[in-house]
Amino acid sequence: MIKDAWDIIEVKSSTSIKDINLHDISFQRLCAENAGLKINRCFLAFINNQHVRNGDINPGEFFTVQDVTEQVDAAAEGIQDRIKEMQAVIASRICPEVTIGECCRTPYDCPVTLCRQGLPENNIFDLYRGGKKCYQMYYDGILRVADIPDNYKLNRSQEIQRDCDNSGLPILILKVSGSLLVKLGLRFTI
Ligand code: SF4
């Protein structure tokens, strides 16, 4: 143990440890160390989804606290170089050349809309809960939902959306059972 050192405990509202949390802590640790603090161990506190509340909340049971120091050490590999790269991008007056891809939604949805401005209306990224498959179809050259070939696996809602786009019929959004939102074509089937 390092003398006169602090532990970092990052508290998250998730129920498991995510890669992004480790990178987050590694950056926080670097900031703390650069500010002159000594850091001993790193912990992640996340919600114990097995906990059943009985009376007052007991934080010791509500949270699972896990020592993630070794994982943070691994995540911190090359952090100085990554920071330099990011600072260079921030300082640049020219947008970096990156194509639309998984990075647009992982680990979070990117708020930049500029990159998609050239896409047609009802494009592939409008596919209902399209997720990763949107990017695969985009790389395959499919730009519009209406152009998705039959051999692509779609769920029922997505098929309805594609058929509506093809037929030009409007899509209605109905609230079902007070909570379930379903996109329906005029030929709806529930
Ligand atoms: S949408 Fe965001 S992450 Fe995706 S290419 Fe554009 S700037 Fe990058």
Portion of residues in beta strands equals 15-25%
Small molecules (ligands, ions, cofactors) in the structure: iron/sulfur cluster
Quick one: how many beta strands?
5
Distance between the termini: 61 Å
> How many helices in DSSP terms?
6
Describe the structure.
There is one protein chain. It contains six helices and five strands; from the N terminus they run E-H-E-H-E-H-H-H-H-E-E. A three-stranded mixed sheet has the order 1-2-3. It has a two-stranded antiparallel sheet with strand order 4-5. The chain is flat. A hairpin with a 3-residue loop joins strand 4 and strand 5 (180-184). Helix 1 (19-34) packs across helix 3 (69-75). It has 190 residues and is an alpha+beta fold. The termini are far apart. It has helices spanning 19-34, 59-62, 69-75, 79-91, 132-139, 156-167; strands at residues 6-11, 39-47, 63-67, 172-176, 180-184. It folds into two domains: 6-88; 102-164, no CATH class. Bound molecules: iron/sulfur cluster.
Task: Give the structure's gist in a few sentences.
The protein is of the alpha+beta class.
How does the SSE layout of this entry go?
Blueprint: E1 6-11, H1 19-34, E2 39-47, H2 59-62, E3 63-67, H3 69-75, H4 79-91, H5 132-139, H6 156-167, E4 172-176, E5 180-184
Parallel strand pairs: 1-2
Antiparallel strand pairs: 2-3, 4-5
Helix pairs in contact: 1-3
Iron/sulfur cluster is lined by residues 98, 100, 103-104, 110, 112, 115.
